[in-house]
């Protein structure tokens, strides 16, 4: 009789641990965010305390060496159920199973149900988690085993979704009741835009499939608040509660504080280039295609002339060989040449390549506007006059014009700027409005601070736009430095206008710090002689000579209290308008700072609007 490796080392084998019932069960709480209650517990197994097999990794590795993996999974489930029942825990019990162990469990489901009933545990309280230990060779054959177990009232969960073998394929084929998002995607989600977007995609699919999501691996308050505000229903992790033999009836105080936090999360924003982030940033070349016939390399100049005469709006013609473009002939330059005396007689029967551009600008149909925009900055500007060739996998599909390229790049950049400012990469007007709407919807108290730079235009006129951009980037850095990225939202409205939505309790101190830091730091952008003079000479907006002091920051704040939100509904546009009004007041203050309550500011705004309407009506009467 051969001994297992563990027995040879003087420690019990997994078979002996199962037979002696020396496995220990621990339970980790799973919290329902909406109700702030414990939905249930995940049952986990440990080897004898203090032994080399105490950790689950070592325990299951040894079971694999002994060929007892399925036997250990079943023994672990029985031990967890026994302990759970004896503790008198309420809620659901989540149990881990590999695909092989689930199939074996399905074959004995009647005995399993009877065994559960004897322990006073209803099948509706059991959730079987399919772990990602190994790939499922035949999902179609595995699905009936899962369905047979679910017919008994047991629920089914897909564990560790997003890694290893927990794939979209399994989600679609098995249609689980619960999907547990792997901890990789949840850890640091408060600061990682890509993880946030990945989980958002999972959330959309969960809504379509009817599955409930569990965010695993929550280890800090910031991640918990982001997950909470995304609308994910359930969560699990060390920050909520660690696995314990005595299943805790309450989750941690830190998690309770985070769930009850009055502020809402600032979702992490991508800092990619705005065109790439724009919803219309890709496949733009396809929209610019001018369908046009092409000519083969064997064509003559007379063939080109005949084509241009037949199609008077055609700006160019592509020359192709085996469907691939090799040259481009511009209409205007070709026709100008042919207008010269005797050119048709001399060159009409000559090959068309004689007057062709043998190195045309070629744009692939799938190219993004960001890639095409590089042409605008290149030294080769022939496309502006000649146009360019558009291909699909290197095969000719049509032509494009320089005008259409400039227009497409401009339109996409304007649209992209609404999402992210192209200079600072800060969120633009659409994300700003969206975040204000979230704050309003959640009835959160916050301070909307409109930021403007005094004397910025004279600085731009004196030092140029390049230096002006450096000042704007410095202002963005100063504001970002005083913001808590998990509570305070910073956006770039445009030009020298920014908007900060503070939820930090010490918002006033942060505002003061920003004013000091910018006003002091901006001096370095001036020449020594201008610093010595205390400013610069220039022209005001009416063209009159004036002297302007240094660029400084002005911040007008609107106080939006939860109490006010219950009384009157204000939209994002009105809040932003009142903040702009406060900014104008701040520019007149020596401190550069002014604060006003939302209701008071809204009333003043309405008075100004009414006065403006009255002036227009009066003017119409006089006319």
Automatic annotation (TrEMBL):
<feature type="domain" description="GGDEF">
    <location>
        <begin position="444"/>
        <end position="601"/>
    </location>
</feature>
<dbReference type="InterPro" id="IPR000160">
    <property type="entry name" value="GGDEF_dom"/>
</dbReference>
<dbReference type="InterPro" id="IPR043128">
    <property type="entry name" value="Rev_trsase/Diguanyl_cyclase"/>
</dbReference>
<dbReference type="Pfam" id="PF00990">
    <property type="entry name" value="GGDEF"/>
</dbReference>
<dbReference type="InterPro" id="IPR046342">
    <property type="entry name" value="CBS_dom_sf"/>
</dbReference>
<feature type="domain" description="EAL">
    <location>
        <begin position="7"/>
        <end position="257"/>
    </location>
</feature>
<dbReference type="InterPro" id="IPR050706">
    <property type="entry name" value="Cyclic-di-GMP_PDE-like"/>
</dbReference>
<dbReference type="InterPro" id="IPR001633">
    <property type="entry name" value="EAL_dom"/>
</dbReference>
<dbReference type="InterPro" id="IPR035919">
    <property type="entry name" value="EAL_sf"/>
</dbReference>
<protein>
    <submittedName>
        <fullName>Diguanylate cyclase</fullName>
    </submittedName>
</protein>
<dbReference type="Pfam" id="PF00563">
    <property type="entry name" value="EAL"/>
</dbReference>
<dbReference type="InterPro" id="IPR029787">
    <property type="entry name" value="Nucleotide_cyclase"/>
</dbReference>
<dbReference type="GO" id="GO:0071111">
    <property type="term" value="F:cyclic-guanylate-specific phosphodiesterase activity"/>
</dbReference>
